[in-house]
Write a structure and sequence with these properties.
- There is one protein chain.
- Strands 3, 4, 5, 6, 7, 8, 10, 13 and 15 form a nine-stranded antiparallel β-sheet that branches. The chain has a four-stranded antiparallel β-sheet with strand order 9-14-11-12.
- Helices cover 21% and strands 28% of the residues.
- It has 318 residues and is α+β, with helices and mostly antiparallel strands.
- Helix 2 (85-106) runs antiparallel to helix 5 (153-164).
- The protein has two domains: 1-83, no CATH class; 104-313, Alpha-ketoglutarate-dependent dioxygenase AlkB-like (Jelly Rolls), CATH 2.60.120.
- It is globular and about 45 Å long.
- The chain binds 2-oxoglutaric acid (AKG) and fe (ii) ion.
- Fe (ii) ion binds at residues 241, 243, 296.
- Residues 1-38, 73-95 are annotated as: Disordered.
- Residues 1-10 have a biased composition (Basic residues).
- This is Alpha-ketoglutarate-dependent dioxygenase AlkB.
- It comes from Kumtagia ephedrae.
Length: 318
Amino acid sequence: MPPRPRRRVRPAGPASCSPSAGASHDPPTGQGAAARTSCGARRCAAGPAGRAHPQLSRQLDRCECRPCIAGSRGRGRPATALSDRRRRRRADARRGQRCLAAGRAAYGGGEAALGRPAAVPVTSRRAMSAIQPSFLADDLPDGFAYRPGLISAAEEGDLVAGFARLDLKPFEFQGYLGNRRVVTFGLRYDFQAGALQQAAPIPDFLLPLRERAAGFAGLPPAALPHVLVTEYAPGAAIGWHRDRPVFGDVIGISFVSPCRFRLRRRAGARWQRAAVLLEPRSAYLLRGEARTVWEHSIPAGEALRYSVTFRSLKRPEG
Ligand SMILES: O=C(O)CCC(=O)C(=O)O
Ligand SMILES: [Fe+2]
């Protein structure tokens, strides 16, 4: 195997931030200590001295620092450094067969466990503390809704087999690659153009899921013209963000293994925080304040997880 290309060195200047940042934002090993910044991410130790995350912008709705967007936990690679793409593709087909069983086993495994939507057995204390929900009902952000068991275990199996056939690509933002892989259908947000563009039509196998998601959100299926399928391999994360303002409601459905879904919003000089366990086959809705005020993120998990995210379009102000 050819030697792995070196990580791209961050260019100087305010438009960049070294691959560091955040709870999903830790600096790469050897880059020194990182201090907290106003965005709750970390100061880039290797970046311009003392500067907070340079691309954090309230207008932009999230920190635009490349590794933050990529959720790469400091391990993001430049697109040009992708050396194992072909190998990963070949592994996909095999993984599609294995992942459901393996993912289920990682959190307590077996078809019997799958029949129980609420309780999520986990195999280790560490895994338990990583995903334990931490809010009381009162702490839920307004506009956040959660439904366990939106789909059956059999439906989940069929959908996961479908994901294995999709052309998932590492999430890319300004040349940096995240550890999660994605594919978008219907409408897609083009980060460079800053606008929605037409993507491939939503595949037939996802349409019944869209109906279910729409029913959960009280919307007609056609009101969800965008769908994003995301694969989180063990260790993959998504950093703190709000979804793009061009979108309206966000409905996320989880597959294979659970994750901890974290929420935070500014409360003076501090962050108010909440977290919820997203079980496989469950759905959540982000609407109102949960969508427009609170940020969300998912820390790296120990087992493979897929999510399907449906989004409506923001209604024109009237
Ligand atoms: O995987 C999930 O459920 C969340 C994904 C997400 O927040 C996003 O793609 O904006
Ligand atoms: Fe999101």
